Amino acid sequence: MKTQNEHTNPDWEKVEKLNSKLSVAWGESKEDIWAKMEAQMQRPKPKGRVIPLNRSVWQWAVAAVILVLLGSTAFMRFYTERAVVPAGEHRLVELPDGSFVQLNAGSEVRYHPYWWAFSREVQFAGEAYFEVEKGSRFQVESENGITTVLGTSFNIYARDANYRVTCLTGKVQVENAGQTCRVLLLPNEKAELVSNELRKQSVEAAQDISWISNRFTFTNRPLPEVFDEIERQYDVSIELPADLRFSYSGNFDKGSDVKQVLRYVCRPFNLNFKEEKNGVFRIEKNN
């Protein structure tokens, strides 16, 4: 006779069958499993992949840098400072290297300040006195001629067809616009362009820069040129006869009244002047 414990429990038999199905067969020891897990954890992580930029991106970047450099260079090369002096005024202009230009009335100078370290060049029209600091070549270009120095002082008169250069200190090289004629000036020498040829002569250089002190000196200059200078200095308009073919030697001081100066210049040539309206004069021949 079986005891109660020995009786078969149908529910217990079901549990045993279920356990037999869920049981896992371990083919490796616990130590082997831990060793594999540690090895897996210590394995180095794969590096990130480097993806190269597309070649066209590099090309665009290089092109952009080149454009910026070209633009900066063009700006430095062609940016221009310009000083214009109207009638009745004088003006002192300092250039980037400390050189000075004293501009007479009705004159203009242009230069490239950001390119000055590479090339000391100015474009000029009118009349001016230059004091140039020593250094590389300094060049003044006018419509009718080119003046080149290293470090010196000189005066240039460049109006219409007239081109005259006077050397005060140092040495000055003067060329016509076509560079077919060239002269070298020493102190108290002047070069004047006549029929596209440069003629050199000795002068008293101080007289050619007396205009800086508002005194204007003329030596055998055409009379219309003298009246032109009076127009510029006093900011007036002067009408001249068509056949005024006289030459004038003399001087006048800007401190004098314009009418007094006109009277002084006209008298030797039997000329008279009439004021048509304020600031407008007409020169007439006396009968």
Features of the shown structure:
18 strands; Phage tail protein beta-alpha-beta fold; Jelly Rolls; 13-stranded mixed sheet; disordered N terminus; alpha+beta; 287 residues
Describe the structure.
The chain is α+β, with helices and mostly antiparallel strands and 287 residues long. The protein has 2 domains: 131 residues, Jelly Rolls (Sandwich); 72 residues, 3-Layer(bab) Sandwich (Phage tail protein beta-alpha-beta fold). It is built from 6 helices and 18 strands. Strands 1, 2, 3, 4, 5, 6, 7, 8, 9, 10, 11, 12 and 13 form a 13-stranded mixed β-sheet that branches. A 3-stranded mixed β-sheet has the order 15-18-17, covered by helices on one side. A two-stranded antiparallel ribbon has the order 14-16. GO terms for molecular function: sigma factor antagonist activity. Keywords: Membrane, Transmembrane, Transmembrane helix. This is FecR family protein.
Give the % helix. Answer: 25-40%
Query: Got a strand count?
Result: 18
Q: Structural class of the helices, strands and pairings? A: alpha+beta
Per the CATH scheme, the topology name of the largest domain is: Jelly Rolls
Protein name: FecR family protein
GO molecular function, one term: sigma factor antagonist activity
Domain Protein FecR C-terminal: 215-280
InterPro entries: FecR, FecR_C, Ferrdict_sens_TM
